[in-house]
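tool_call predict_complex ligand=adenosine-5'-triphosphate
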Amino acid sequence: MAKPWTTRRGSAPVAEDGPQVITATDVSFTYPGADTPALEGINLDLKRGEVIALVGENGAGKSTLARILTGLFLPTAGSVRWDGVDLADADPAAVLAKVALVPQDYTRWPLAARENITLGQPRSEGDIAVHAAAEAADADSVIAALPHGLDTSLARSWWGGHDLSGGQWQRVAVARAFHRDAPVLVMDEPTAALDARAEHRIYTRLRALAEGRATVFVTHRLANTRLADRIIVLDHGRIAETGTFDDLVSRGATSIFFEMLKLQEDR
Ligand SMILES: Nc1ncnc2c1ncn2[C@@H]1O[C@H](COP(=O)(O)OP(=O)(O)OP(=O)(O)O)[C@@H](O)[C@H]1O
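tool_result ok
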């Protein structure tokens, strides 16, 4: 039964070593005031150690599903459970503490480069962890070029900081997620503003970073989905196809994924 839009949350704890599995059951989601649902009848499991790629046309529901699986939004029908605990009943702070998210609209904090990566949550390894995350996100060259390294303010230059390009900022945002020692990693088009070399570097490191985590990434560049264990193709808010890259390609012209891939390759 459809529930109204709700921000009501519970206080149930989330397992210390969880989530081992994230389960969406008959999930639908309608934005407040919208006539049509952004997601409808979504069923899926995401296990720790798995990497899922979400693909589909603009407006298909990819970002919405990424937010639903991590408890940022609660479904308006159906449920999302982490190890059996419905996120509607869970303590939202405990849930969010377990999520590292690179949203499409990441924030450019007017703080030093270090704080833009740690967000005030330094790891016990200190700057070693910051540099490791930066390297994995291909942001090490960005930091090396800053006049005062990690101490450089990334506020706008008219405030006395150092300006970064859109692609450089995006690498810092990815480093932020990699720095967070969270078991759920969600990246919504993490490389949209990146040049081909930086994008390639991030995706070649993603598999290692995803180890032991439940990872979801959204991408429009379908070649990136080769590294996923499973691809989920969304179409108008529904799951249209799922499978590995090879599975979907082998379906040929009957597959939406195959058709999208052909269009990209013919470009
Ligand atoms: N804040 C919002 N309020 C109302 N409707 C929204 C909102 N955000 C998204 N939608 C609608 O929900 C649907 C799914 O949007 P969503 O952003 O999840 O798609 P997407 O597949 O991530 O798209 P894109 O590839 O363009 O990023 C779309 O029809 C969109 O217009």
